[in-house]
Every structure is written in C-alpha cells, then in structure tokens.
Automatic annotation (TrEMBL):
Keywords: ATP-binding, Glycoprotein, Kinase, Nucleotide-binding, Receptor, Transferase
Keyword ATP-binding: yes
Pfam families, alphabetized: Malectin_like
Protein name: Receptor-like kinase
The keyword Nucleotide-binding is assigned to this record: yes
Ranges in coiled-coil conformation: none
Biological source species: Rhynchospora pubera
Record's bilayer topology term: Single-pass type I membrane protein
Length: 340
C-alpha cells in the first residue's frame, strides 16, 4: 500500500522509503539467505499512515528472528517522523527469518535491511561498571541500538557513514551548555586496522568533539563537568561505547580527564595519545543499576598541574537483547528456543 503523506519530505532523509508499506493480517515472515556467517545489522523501518480502511497507527505486534525477540507489543501511535529499529546480531545459520505477528487486525513494515558488517565492529571483552571488572561474551550477544550520538553537535546522515548509520547531534542531551564547547578538525583520521576503522565510526565522528568549557580554566578552583542525560528503560542491561580522539591538544600528553556513568567514575585520569589514532571503550551497565534517566559526564582530572580539560567524540548506547522467541498461536503461548 502507498501513502500520500506530504509531511515525510521534512521528516526523513529518504521520504520515498516511508510512502509504501507491507501489511500482514496473520503470522508471516521474510526469509533472507545469508552469504557469510557473522555479524549483521537488522534494521526495521516504520512510519504509520492511513490508506483506505487501514490505519497503520493502530497496529500492535511482535517481531522476532528464529532466535531472538526484536519487538514485543510494539505500537506506533502519535509519532511525527519515521522510526528505525536497529539490531546487531551474530548470524550463524544460512538463513535468517524475520517473523511479524499481529496482536491487532494487522502488522506492517515499511522496509527491512539486513547488512553484513565486520566482526571487528564488536569485540568479546568489555568492562562492567559496578564494580569495574572484565565482561566476556559480548560478541555473542544481540544488541539493540538505543542512542547513537555524535558529539560536536553535528548530525551524521547515512550517506556519510559506511554502514549507513545515523548519528544525532548531542546538544539536546547536554544538561548545561555553558559548560561545553564544540570542536572540529579538518585533519585526516588515521585508523588502526583491525581495531578501530571507518566502520567503527566514520571520520566525521572522530573529527568533532564536545570539550569542557573555558570556565574550568578561567574560574579559580572550578571543576565543572559536562553532563549528557538519556532516557532509558529501567531493568535492562546496556552497553555503552565511548569514542575518543584528541583533536584539541597542541602537543602530546596534555589531555587528562575523568569519565562518569551515573554516580560511578569509570575512567579516572584518562589520557589520550595526542594526535595519534581514534579509540573506543565499551562498558556494561547492569540491569540492577540502569535507571530511567542516565547521566554520562566528563570532568577535569583532579591531578595537580594538569590543565582542566576533557573531550568526548561520540557515544553509543545499546540494549542487550537476549529474550527467547515467543509466538502466540491462538490462545496457546509457545516459547521457541532454536538450538544450533
């Protein structure tokens, strides 16, 4: 079916993508042949519209693969722009099935992407936050992207990302912009092959940053932090990926700062090799510690004789999706646990 919604021109980079949709009135699925096992993005695009007797905003449904639940009791009411749900999954089968199960009269989807990505996009190790210790097995988890933010307050569109991701500007998340300043550079980004590549984050992410404001330098004894606040669902486990690249130092070893997640200092006296290569750090926030309002902060080091500065280039927040598949057949609840 097709939409005639003229508002799409202003609400999306690709308005034509959301002017058509496929609807189902019963349990249905798409099947994709997987050419190479490994990590893939699954992106589901949604924008409800009215067509004849169908009002897609009234749809309520589940979406799953043959292994994991992607969406449960999903609805799209009162939205003004398209919604994209993105998942990073490790596919170890020759076929990927994406199931759509209605809990109302219908289920719909505007577009589906299945994109092969390098396995180096996600490593197996991370650090838990409370307490700080090693976390293993991350590469086997399915991750749902919740936020992908480019510091420096510059939006990155899919056309400027090798994996067609969108990075939103950070200004709307900053609690007090008086404590922040935005920086950028035209210098070439030299990646570390096999560790940090353009697929990790595009050059524009590492070429922009939000830096601590001059208040820390001009106000005697000042220790102002930059704090970004994000809305989350409580009771879920999240992966936080911090992107760093020093674009503010003139010479080496000038930058030393602290990084906080909520009340916890996760990086203390954190230094970046000046003018070197970009890097990222992954942390796991447990379900017990996740709250509906998550504060991420950077602040000056408490070490004496260190300039009060700090930067952040990018931040990704992902939900660890580990639910088994649940499908309703009539009134019977069926748990599908597919074993490789």
């Amino acid at each position: 079916m097709a939409s005639t919604d003229s508002n799409l021109e202003a609400s999306s980079e690709y308005p034509s993508l959301y002017q058509t949709a496929r609807i189902f009135t019963s349990l249905s699925y798409y099947s994709f042949q997987i050419q190479q096992h490994g990590h893939h993005f699954i992106r589901l695009h949604f924008y409800p519209f009215v067509y004849q007797n169908y009002d897609l905003a009234n749809a309520k449904f589940n979406v799953s693969t043959q292994d994991i639940m992607l969406l449960t009791d999903f609805q799209l009411k009162n939205i003004s722009s398209p919604i994209v749900k993105e998942y990073l999954v490790n596919i170890t089968k020759d076929k990927l099935n994406v199931f759509f199960q209605p809990f109302s009269d219908l289920v719909f989807v505007n577009a589906i992407e299945v994109v092969s990505v390098p396995d180096t996009l996600i490593f197996d190790l991370a650090s838990t936050i409370n307490p700080i210790r090693q976390y293993t097995g991350l590469s086997t988890q399915a991750l749902e992207n919740v936020y992908r933010v480019n510091m420096g307050n510059l939006k990155v569109t899919p056309d400027n990302d090798t994996l067609w991701r969108t990075w939103v500007p950070d200004a709307s998340f900053i609690q007090n912009q008086n404590f922040a300043r935005w920086k950028s550079t035209i210098a070439t980004i030299n990646y570390m092959e096999g560790l940090v590549t353009a697929e990790t984050a595009p050059p524009i992410v590492y070429s922009t940053a939000t830096e601590l404001a001059l208040l820390n330098e001009t106000t005697k004894g000042a220790r102002f932090n930059i704090t970004w606040q994000f809305d989350l669902q409580e009771g879920y486990t999240y992966m936080l990926r911090f992107h760093f690249f020093d674009i503010v130092s003139i010479s080496a070893n000038q930058l030393l700062f602290d990084v906080y997640v909520g009340p916890w200092a996760v990086l203390t006296d954190f230094g970046l090799p000046s003018l070197a290569r970009p890097q990222f750090t992954d942390f796991i926030l447990s379900a017990e510690d996740s709250t509906c309002k998550l504060n991420i902060s950077i602040g000056p080091s408490k070490t004496a004789d260190v300039p009060p500065d700090g930067i952040l280039n990018g931040l990704e927040i992902s939900n660890l999706t580990i639910s088994p598949v649940v499908i309703m057949l009539g009134q019977e609840l069926v748990w599908l646990l597919f074993l490789a």
